[in-house]
Specification:
The complex is a heterodimer of chains A (about 80) and B (about 220). Helix content of chain A is about 35%, strand content about 30%. By secondary structure, chain A is of the alpha+beta class. Chain A has one domain: Mth169, Chain: A. In chain A, strands 2-1-3 form a three-stranded antiparallel β-sheet, covered by helices on one side. The radius of gyration of chain A is 16 Å and the shape is elongated. The mean pLDDT of chain A is about 95. With about 220 residues, chain B is α/β, with parallel strands linked by helices. Chain B has a single domain, classed as Class I glutamine amidotransferase (GATase) domain (Rossmann fold). Chain B contains five helices and eleven strands; from the N terminus they run E-H-E-E-H-E-H-E-E-E-E-H-E-E-E-H. The model of chain B has no long low-confidence stretch (mean pLDDT about 95). The chains are: A alpha+beta (about 80), B alpha/beta (about 220). At the A-B interface, helix 1 of A face loops of B.
Chain lengths: ~80, ~220
Amino acid sequence: MIKAIVNISLKKGVLDSQGKAVHHALDSLHFEGVDDVRVGKQIVLQLDTKDKEKAKKDVTQMCEDLLANTVIEDYEIKLV
Amino acid sequence: MTKVSIVQFPGTNCEYDTQHAFDGLGASTELVWHKSETIPSDTDLLVIAGGFSYGDYLRSGAIARFSPVMKAVEEYASKGGNILGICNGFQVLTEAGLLPGALKRNEHLHFISKYHNLKVINNDNTFLQNLNHDDIVNIPIAHHDGNYFIDADGLKELEKNDQILLKYTDASGSIKNPNGSVESIAGICNKQKNIFGLMPHPERAMELLLGSDDGVKMLQGFTKK
């Protein structure tokens, strides 16, 4: 079994309103030294395979087809 | 008689308003369940109605675009058939790649539900043919993810090909952007001008008694004289 962790976030240059709101809230709580906040989502997949290469290929396809909208989002895949 | 087919996903909730609106304009209407692999062959206009298909899970419209009916929708589109996506329907069409760009969470993160003025930017198309350039219409908006995004190159293409249909404005026609959309864009069409998408709800503006009948002229663009 391979666990795939997919992190999806808005692309650089696409305004992240939620990140901005959270940043603002951190500021008002007096947390200092936060330069930037991005809010994304994480999708965790349990894969029925031991083949890491196949897993990476399959999950990449899942991201391209469904999990991310590549017009506005980037994705990052970690296999554990 | 104009035949309007209206796609229904689990979570669609504007299909009956849409049906009522087109019935009132003298069209014949038919609902098409998302599991159908075909759409009625006499369809003159296919509407993807508003709502929250599949609970808006993952992203608005992201799951609906893989419904069985969408293959038939894509085939209909490729043959030049007229398609109108309203609100969630617009989101489904962008997710399916039938319209460029994407709809993001509203800039101020609120769900917005109110009347909003829109300015007609291009009327050289079936949808807005009964309106004039710069006309102002007052149409309800009701969305959480209506913040239209397209990159700079994509925007140039839209402008070059007269694909921007409507922009959010105030009553005098000055830009007033409720949700952070690029260039205050409320609706667009594809380059071939047979696929239309907008966040506002013209089907909810069909009777003055209910606040506005500005949707009549819009939807009449699709009904035969």
